[in-house]
């Protein structure tokens, strides 16, 4: 009986803790900080010479102390939730301590801190947090360039613009705290939405989504209408891993765009024989390769290639496969059989082998790589859209459109395809991660983008030759690939759950 009672109490405590977003965020931040500590410790030791980098060791020690503080706050949260079913005011004030850890570049601790200090957290507040931290994260990464002998000519312009964007994010966050009450939004916030929309070209998807949410809620303030896509976004942010994946993707997109101003492409591509195979340091955070090129800068510019290829190689088959699948599902019979049998032949060939054959035939280039990866995914999206269209073809709204005299292409484009987007979006999000992995794999084999271009697969290929002596050359591009693929997978899982009507 005692064991059963203990198990029951434990299950109840776990149930309570799962509902507390602050507890989960703080625990994840503490674990992430501990992992960063281990990475810094790894960077502090030169395996080639046996020397210890004191600055890296000191930074690792600082991160370890912050990890201990976060674990302490985490245990305090656990105790209060289990006993009182809520967090005390003093514990919430500790969120400001975690926000201060942003000075060390710890974005995860800052996210947990912002979530902790505010008890009632609406969607707008969460979006403003992630928008601000995305901008600050890009600024912190860009500031690493100050340790180099020289910086990009446009560095100061980029930092000033990012500073203005961060200021807009801070003002918006404070304004939202006062002007958003439930579904009611202060109409004056439309000016904040306009400013956020102007900052969206930096790659900050959170700022774009927040501005659209504010515009939509202001528009529907009278009828208090529930907008479905806003509810989907809200459900995504209930999932910590999905929101984290969203943040990683947005951050990498933003740093890829802002690197045009804050990073020097010369450092990533031009040889520097005076800095060959240097260990990680403040000047070269990820060390240098066999040509003296900064690996950190190459990974930053490599993110641009991975995202562009991954997104375009997913968008192209969505358009082609979506149209073919919609036509096949709508008309059926001979048209359906003709289209699907041709796609079945294409589907029978493994995608990676098809990509290798196309690149080998037409040569290595970014365009050829996108086309090669796109062609293999056309049957996948065609099948997905066809299955959805078959279920919608006889729907009442389709019959109503026919009765009104709408032409077939209008029905397909205006009525059927918009209602088929949910499974396509989920599959697309998951497919981008696979496309990134395929891009790196082909580049590693010498069949991806041009060898001189800083792409993660190319960087990994060079690093694989120095695994025993300079292992960091392979570890960091490999970690970058893993992080981006996992981010898209977690985001895709979150979207799937958010769009599932059974989980609403």
Number of DSSP-assigned strands: 2
Low-confidence stretches: none
- How would you write the strand order of the largest sheet? 1-2
Average pLDDT for all residues: 83
Anisotropy-based shape = globular
Please count the helical segments.
Answer: 22
* Strand-pairing-aware structural class: mainly alpha
Assign a percent range to the helix content. Answer: over 70%
The sequence of SSEs as H and E is: HHHHHHHHEEHHHHHHHHHHHHHH
First-last Cα distance: 37 Å
Radius of gyration: 25 Å
Strand content: under 5%
The main β sheet shows up as: 2 strands, antiparallel
Task: Outline the structure in words.
The protein has 504 residues and is mainly α. Helix content is 74%, strand content 1%. It has helices at 2-19, 21-44, 54-84, 89-93, 95-100, 107-117, 123-143, 155-179, 190-199, 205-219, 228-238, 240-262, 265-269, 295-331, 333-348, 351-362, 366-392, 396-403, 408-416, 421-444, 456-463, 472-499; strands at 180-181, 184-185. It has a two-stranded antiparallel ribbon. Strand 1 and strand 2 form a beta hairpin. Helix 12 (240-262) packs across helix 22 and helix 18 runs antiparallel to helix 19. The protein starts with a helix and ends in a 5-residue tail after the last helix. The model has no long low-confidence stretch (mean pLDDT 83).
SSE order and pairing:
Blueprint: H1 2-19, H2 21-44, H3 54-84, H4 89-93, H5 95-100, H6 107-117, H7 123-143, H8 155-179, E1 180-181, E2 184-185, H9 190-199, H10 205-219, H11 228-238, H12 240-262, H13 265-269, H14 295-331, H15 333-348, H16 351-362, H17 366-392, H18 396-403, H19 408-416, H20 421-444, H21 456-463, H22 472-499
Antiparallel strand pairs: 1-2
């Amino acid at each position: 009986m005692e064991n059963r009672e203990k198990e029951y109490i434990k299950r109840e405590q776990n149930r309570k803790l799962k509902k507390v977003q602050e507890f989960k965020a703080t625990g994840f931040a503490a674990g992430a900080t501990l992992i960063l500590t281990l990475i810094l410790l790894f960077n502090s030791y030169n395996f080639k010479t046996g020397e210890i980098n004191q600055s890296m060791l000191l930074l690792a020690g600082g991160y370890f102390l912050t990890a201990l503080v976060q674990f302490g706050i985490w245990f305090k949260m656990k105790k209060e939730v289990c006993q009182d079913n809520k967090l005390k005011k003093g514990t919430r004030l500790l969120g400001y301590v975690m926000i201060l850890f942003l000075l060390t570049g710890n974005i995860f601790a800052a996210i947990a801190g912002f979530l902790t200090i505010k008890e009632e957290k609406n969607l707008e507040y969460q979006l403003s947090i992630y928008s601000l931290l995305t901008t600050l994260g890009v600024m912190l990464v860009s500031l690493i360039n100050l340790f180099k002998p020289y910086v990009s000519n446009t560095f100061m312009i980029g930092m000033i613009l990012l500073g203005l964007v961060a200021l807009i994010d801070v003002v918006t966050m404070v304004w939202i705290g006062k002007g958003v009450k439930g579904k009611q939004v202060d109409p004056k916030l439309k000016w904040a939405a306009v400013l956020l929309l102007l900052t969206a070209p930096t790659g900050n998807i959170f700022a774009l989504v927040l501005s659209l949410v504010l515009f939509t809620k202001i528009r529907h303030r009278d009828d208090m209408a529930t907008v479905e896509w806003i509810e989907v976004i809200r459900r995504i942010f209930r999932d910590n891993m999905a929101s984290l994946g969203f943040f990683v993707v947005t951050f990498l997109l933003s740093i890829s765009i802002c690197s045009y101003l804050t990073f020097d492409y010369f450092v990533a591509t031009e040889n520097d024989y005076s800095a060959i195979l240097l260990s990680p340091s403040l000047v070269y955070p990820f060390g240098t390769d066999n040509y003296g090129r900064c690996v950190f800068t190459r990974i930053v510019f490599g993110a641009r290639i991975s995202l562009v290829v991954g997104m375009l190689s997913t968008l192209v088959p969505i358009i082609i496969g979506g149209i073919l699948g919609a036509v096949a599902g709508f008309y059926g019979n001979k048209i359906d059989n003709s289209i699907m049998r041709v796609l079945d032949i294409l589907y029978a060939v493994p995608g990676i082998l098809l990509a290798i054959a196309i690149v080998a035939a037409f040569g290595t280039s970014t365009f050829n790589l996108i086309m090669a990866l796109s062609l293999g995914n056309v049957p996948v999206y065609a099948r997905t859209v066809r299955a959805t269209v078959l279920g919608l073809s006889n729907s009442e709204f389709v019959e109503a459109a026919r009765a009104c005299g709408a032409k077939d292409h209008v029905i397909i484009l205006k009525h059927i395809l918009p209602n088929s987007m949910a499974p396509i979006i989920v599959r697309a999000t998951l497919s981008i991660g696979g496309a990134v992995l395929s891009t790196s794999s082909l580049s590693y084999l010498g069949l991806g983008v041009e060898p001189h271009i800083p792409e993660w697969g190319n960087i990994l290929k060079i690093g694989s030759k120095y695994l025993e002596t300079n292992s960091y050359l392979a570890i960091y591009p490999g970690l970058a690939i893993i992080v981006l693929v996992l981010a898209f997978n977690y985001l895709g899982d979150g979207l799937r759950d958010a769009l599932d009507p059974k989980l609403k």
